[in-house]
Amino acid sequence: EPSVVLATDGALALPSGPVPIPIQVLPVGSGDRNVAITEFAARRYPLDKSRVEVMLEVTNTNEQPADAEVTLYGDGAVIDVTRLRLGSKERFPRFYTDIAGASRRLEARVRLAGGKPDDLPADDRAYALMPERRRARVLVVTSGNTYLEAALLLDEYLDVTYVEPALYPPKERFDVTIFDNVAPRLSENTGSALYLNPPALGSPLKFEKPIKDFGFDRWNRKNSILKFLALGDVQVAHGNRLVPEKGDEVLAESDLGPVLVTGLREGRRFVVLGFDPRDSDFVLRPAWPLFTLGVIDAFVSEDTSYLSSYQTGRSWRIPAPSGAESAELTTPRGERVTVPVKEGRAAYFGSVAGFYRLRVPGVDASDHEFAANLGDPEESQIKPVPKLSFDGKPAALASAGTPGVRRRFWAYLLIGVLVVSVIEWFTYHRRLTV
What we know:
The protein has helices at about 145-150, 285-305, 410-430, and strands at about 5, 10-15, 25, 35-45, 50-60, 65-75, 75-85, 90-95, 105-110, 125-130, 135-140, 160-165, 175-180, 190-195, 205-215, 220, 235-245, 250-255, 255-265, 270-275, 310, 315-320, 325-330, 335-340, 345-350, 355-360, 365-375, 390, 395, 395. The chain is mostly beta strands. The two termini are about 50 Å apart.
């Protein structure tokens, strides 16, 4: 049978040649009045994890202006109520810079002014979870670095342990390890690693040649580590030109070569700074503590794989213990579903918005709660298409309740032959015919 393609402008595109197939259209739905929550997410500030920022976007999908009321809930209690006047097709973002009165669950609801329901209730509610406020465990392997210690004191949610290089490796597990002028062999408890001026032996990167009197001439301002840093005036006495491998990312470089590189080794993230910060004025600038804490925050955020919410109508890959083969997923409706786990990810096709909980039986620490939302601006566009064109001509409207029937006469002939054969068999064995 020939293929039929629906174009974005509502026209049906067909392959070349005659197509003897009548096309009929059955319109679905009639109303188009809808206001929707198209974005909803929460995050903690990198340098003040006691504060949470929430981003909410409300969209009016109609040509006519609409008055709407947005209510924000925290752990089931009302936090904020806002009345909005939305213009034609307007998408209105709203930022809540400091959320008080909520510790875990957030929910947003939108409705038309006066309490009138719109024509698509599915996108009137959205859910998000506040990131867990946990202390990141940081190990510092150093013979002493006052500037580094001062930078780490600025974040009260860091649990920092200092050890001499001779006492490495640790027996406890850490999220991040900072190596100050050393590069010992990594242990399984190291976590992600920040190297400050590592020696050539043990460094995840090779050095091409020493360099002198340089600075940060170019840096990736889009990277989360360097996004808010001013590095243009930093002066460095001497250091090393780094040689990144395939797959590594150069975060910053001087005219003499790369001096700040990040990458992945043996499944663990690393960042290498190719000079001792004390051999520069880097440690005297606000960029130094922002850089140090930014690296730690990037490592911890990457390791926790935090996602504010998943989108319904898609396949999800949910973080789970890599050693598990299956997990139990509790849906917003209270249903419990067994889902497969492969390579540390649980696979599930989500179709219901709300809060979910993933649990691996027998492993209490593996409980993982997450949220799911519709969050699709295109799906919230529910205005029915009045007509579809076919080969430049409007398609005819289908008659509901009168589906077409393909008449295959050979089927009736076959049935007739079977009936006659049964009658003949019956009369023969009854001696009615000879």
